[in-house]
């Protein structure tokens, strides 16, 4: 089955990592894969464009089906391989509703992370505007405040005790935050979640190779709130 799949991926690409975790959870190892260098702009080569005309990663083929959006790929794999590997959509209506709510709520979180990273990485320091920096920080801080509250009310995973599709899609966001310097002391619930899952076999097996080296950016170290009434940046 996995031999009919092809994944072109980038090290540290959160969407790529989601698909890789999913493939591990569904016991679909042995798929055709190639590490694409984002630094060398290999994601704009014809090899990638033939699968993903947007020139983005991942570029994923499952048989004759092309699924380049990580959410789409993960849902497709769960539906196609329900009886294989980890069951990632719970039967309980309560857990299922919470899982769907949290996994789609993770979309704006990732967008806010990317806004900060791209502004710091692509805009020269002398051309950055304080108002834009502040606005981006405020957006992410408000989002993280929500997730701290959510995770304080759950067990080890987003929808309860069981690892679900929501965790497949959400965990790489959290790992990216801590990779970029988010404070464990300031965000203890997020840190607990991260530490409880980072050694899960599917996550360890697909860990971004270059993340074993020190990060180039620490843009999240100043993201902080003290309490709901007092914000510090």
UniProtKB/TrEMBL annotation:
InterPro entries, A to Z: Glutathione-S-Trfase_C-like, Glutathione-S-Trfase_C_sf, Glutathione_S-Trfase, Glutathione_S-Trfase_N, GST_C, Thioredoxin-like_sf
Residue ranges of domain GST C-terminal in the record: 92-219
A Pfam entry, by short name: GST_N_2
Location of the GST N-terminal domain: 3-85
Family: Belongs to the GST superfamily.
Name of protein: Glutathione S-transferase rho
Lineage: Eukaryota, Metazoa, Chordata, Craniata, Vertebrata
């Amino acid at each position: 089955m996995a031999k009919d799949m092809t994944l072109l991926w980038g090290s540290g690409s959160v969407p790529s990592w989601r698909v890789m975790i999913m493939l591990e959870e569904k016991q679909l190892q042995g798929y055709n894969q190639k590490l694409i260098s984002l630094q060398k702009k290999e994601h704009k080569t014809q090899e990638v464009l033939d699968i993903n005309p947007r020139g983005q990663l991942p570029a994923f083929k499952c048989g004759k089906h092309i699924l380049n959006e990580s959410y789409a790929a993960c849902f497709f794999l769960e539906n196609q391989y329900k009886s294989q590997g980890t069951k990632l959509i719970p039967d309980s209506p309560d857990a299922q509703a919470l899982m769907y709510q949290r996994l789609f709520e993770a979309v704006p979180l990732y967008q806010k992370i990317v806004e900060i990273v791209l502004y710091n990485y692509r805009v020269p320091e002398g051309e950055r505007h304080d108002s834009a920096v502040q606005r981006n920080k405020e957006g992410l801080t408000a989002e993280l405040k929500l997730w701290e509250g959510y995770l304080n009310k759950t067990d080890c995973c987003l929808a309860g005790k069981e690892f679900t599709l929501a965790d497949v899609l959400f965990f790489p966001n959290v790992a990216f935050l801590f990779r970029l310097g988010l404070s464990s002391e300031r965000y203890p619930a997020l840190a607990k979640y991260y530490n409880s899952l980072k050694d899960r076999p599917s996550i360890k097996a697909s860990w971004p190779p270059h993340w074993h080296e020190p990060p180039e950016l620490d843009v999240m170290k100043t993201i902080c709130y003290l309490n709901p009434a007092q914000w510090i940046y």
